Structures are given as structure tokens and as C-alpha cells.
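Example record

Each entry pairs one chain with its bound ligand, calcium ion.
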Amino acid sequence: MKKIIFDGDPGIDDALAIMLALQSKELQLIGITTVAGNVNVDRGTLNALSILEYLKIENIPVVRGSEKPLYKELETAEFVHGQDGLGNINLPSPKTQPIPQLASEFIINTIKNNPNEVTIVATGPLTNIAKMLTSSPEISNDILELIIMGGAVNIPGNVTSVAEYNIWADAEAAKIVLESDLPITLVPLDVTTSFRLTTANLYEIKKANTPISILISRMLPYYIEINQKLRNIDGCYIHDALAMAYSIDPTLFTTEMMGLEVMVNKNEEYGKLIISKEKPPLKICLKVNSQRFLRFFVDRMIK
Ligand code: RIB
Ligand code: CA
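C-alpha cells for the complex follow.
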């Protein structure tokens, strides 16, 4: 089994990524670190704890991470994910607590205790990952892979015309990470917005009537409504689930190796990714077999 640390800002699609990991026998989810993004870090941490408790999953440590970007002010996205970050379903407050450790420390210690066995799936702003790399540059030698949902390479962004939210929310952190020598696979909007989870897919999931399918059926209506209002689409984009899916079955994707420069000037290019031969190459998912992915995802959510 592949050991996974999930680092994210749950967030509805982050929650789907966590559930996909829990439903996949190929993976062992060994920790969840939270970062301020879609919602503040306390809300995101509560959401991670609540999801695990709702699903009666024990012994997966949840670690509260960065409460703000490295330099800029935090700009959350409750309008997309709901005031509670999970589609306003208001799960009961968790009885469990996060473990008292810094997220970057937890990640570093876990990787060093499991050299070349840990994959990080990062689906929020990259603040924790940047702090990890800054305090322990040698970690590049011990991490198996860093899979990141973020960025827009050959298509427009979703926050500005050039920037995707996870990169834009902390471009300075993204620059540290994406321009490093870490073994990175990037899952950008180019693939995550190439198809939607439709209301028909949601109906199939709902029919399973399992704890996970009930939780998804409660979360997604808000998200589908917002996607309809903001993006005039039927269904919704489930960005973060694709990053987790890559860790399970990379053959769902077509990739290319390219270096990327992250723009951090305080202007309209902030958060833009520019292909650069001067930067260390990373693996970029440019295409996804969307029909295969949807079948894969729905099958795992209903089993
Ligand atoms: O741009 C989409 C990304 O930003 C997703 O990870 C979503 O959860 C938000 O964090
Ligand atoms: Ca996210």
C-alpha cells in the first residue's frame, strides 16, 4: 500500500479526495494536515476531524497547519464551499482533537521515519509544504512523490484570468515548492475542469445509501448550485479528487515534463504559471480520460 499524507483545505472537493483515499485499498492514509484556504484553518481542521468521525474512522492523525499564507493576507472561499466549508451540512462538532504538532514538523518526521515510502497529496495552498521544504531542504531525498492539485497551464485561471486558487492564495509558497527539486506531479485546471461530476453521477452515488454516499449526497447540492451560478455548468468540478486519483491510477492521465515559473509580482500576473526551461522539470497532467475517471470515482464512492 502507498502511504499518503493528505495536505488540504477541506473544502468539499478536498473532502471527496479524503473519501477516495479511505475507499482505496491501494492507499494507507497516514495523516491529514490542514492549511488555511477555502476556509480558515480551524474550520478546515474541524472538518477533517468531523469527516473521519462521521465515517467512524479512527487512528488517522489530523494536524492543524498554517493559518495564513507566507506573506499575503488569507482570502477564503466560503461562497464556493459554504460557511462550514462542506456545503452547509453542519456536521456535529468532533469529539476528537488534532494532534499538538506543527504540520510541517509532522510531515518531515513522518517522511524521515518512512524514507521513500510517503506520497503527499496537496490540495490547498502550498504554505505547509513550503515551510516543510524551507526547514528541511534535504526532504527531497526521502519523499516518494508530491502530487499537487493547482495551477492553470494552458487555460485561464479560476480566480483571475491567469491564476488558479491554490496557487493564487499563496503564490510565494507555490514558488518555493514548484521551483524546487521535489518529485512533483501537478494536477492543474487543464484536467480538473475538462469534465464535471454530473447530477446523474450524484444520483448513482446517492442510491448506494452508505455513510460515504450519504455524506456526498448532503455536501454536493450546495456545490452543484454554486457551480451552476458561477460557471453556468451542470454538475461540479471535483478538482482535488483527481489529485488523489493520480496517486492510485496514474494511467488515467497523460503527462508531460515541464519546468514552471510562478509569478509573484503584485500585479495582475500574480499566481500565473509560466512554462520555463530554466526551472526544474516537473510532471504535469495535461489530459485525463474523464469517462474512465468518472467510472473509477463513482465505483469507489458506492462500494
Ligand atoms: O482551484 C481549485 C482548488 O482550490 C481546489 O483545491 C479547491 O478545493 C480550492 O482549494
Ligand atoms: Ca482544496
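The two ends are 19 Å apart (CA to CA).
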